[in-house]
Amino acid sequence: MSMVATPAHLLRSATALGNEEVMRIRNDFPILNRSVNGHPLIYLDSGATSQNPLSVLEAEQEFYEQRNSAVHRGAHYLAVEATEAFEDARETVAAFIGADQDELVWTSNATEGLNLISYSFLNASLPGAPAESARFALAAGDEIVVTEMEHHANLIPWQQLAERTGATLKFIPVDDAGALDLDAAARLIGGRTRVLAFTHASNVLGSINPVSALVSLARAAGALVVLDACQSAPHLALDVKDLDVDFAVFSGHKMLGPTGIGGLYGRSELLNAMPPFLTGGSMITTVTMERAAFLPSPQRFEAGTQKISQAVALAAAANYLSETGLSRIHAWESELGRRLVEGLEAIPGVRVLGPAAGRERIGLAAFDVAGVHAHDVGQFLDSRGIAVRVGHHCAQPLHRRLGLTASTRASTYLYNTTDDVDAFLDAVAGVRGYFQA
Ligand SMILES: Cc1ncc(COP(=O)(O)O)c(C=O)c1O
Hints:
About 35% of the residues lie in helices and about 15% in strands. The protein contains 15 helices and 17 strands.
């Protein structure tokens, strides 16, 4: 019952999807037929959470109707089928990001993946930690480097780790155009750096960070590299081995999958040397009243009953994306992104955050409308059936750096048409007039 599709990174067609194909794709997404506030829904909030195709909804339902059972435990028929489905899903999703099966740990989301790494490093830093985990231990004098554009999920766990171990947290600044200052990065990353954690694509700026330049700096310093692939895994053909990172995290709900599941990739030799984060059932070899010995990765990090139906559904999502072709999706979203940015830049009083039109970005754009609070912009758009995200998008330091407290963000995915973008631009053009700003 293997469901392994061709890994995304092997599908290299660069031809963008077009409106006609997108109209066919939209038929797979029942929610896109909804109306909101008397208007057909225009969903431009996939950066927050994406919608689910029928194949994903059906995979989850089929699991509950036919196979529902605990995995890795029972000796009965359903338990065997459920375990097969769960592990097949792992194989599919691991292949989707270019990883081996034992290198993919299921988590609830990217946030949990990042906490898993940082708590494991904290456990490695405690007195009495196993000798094999010494390479993950941090102490005063060690440094963790992040960037100023991180989502709070890739900032606060490192702040906490630094605070508890005495390590110092440093950050690579962002310039006025929202790009990382690579000269500063070269100065910051050095002999004391133990961890470099950064986002692949910014959830606010839409920019795609230069992974190989940053990985080279980290390698030269002997630091571990943690990649937040939350905004890249859904939109770019990802190969964690090619990227040469040590860890990567992503969330299923941003890549057509259900909520409640995400993934952590880690190099197998690292995962197998790291102390567990959560402990309990299903992650042990032997237990006495005094001690326990732990299974290798990935079970080592999967304590308790797992997200089984969600894993199965996430594999269906990965298959849907692979079959459509990640490079075609990215090419289409780049077109939509360019249209968004050019259109927004042409509206008086609108300031687009991140790379200017024509520079590479994922298909999202956050912006500020002079004199109108982002929440008002969002409500105005919602009254026309247009769903966007407003606020600081869990990136307060970045907004502060850009002189803002909040912004409005439109984010596209493979089911958005150029008509969606045009209707959105038309609505934004009316915002300042409506609020007399
Ligand atoms: C770049 C980035 N990292 C991490 C996260 C956290 O994702 P989740 O809330 O699914 O854990 C998000 C979600 O918006 C994100 O955009």
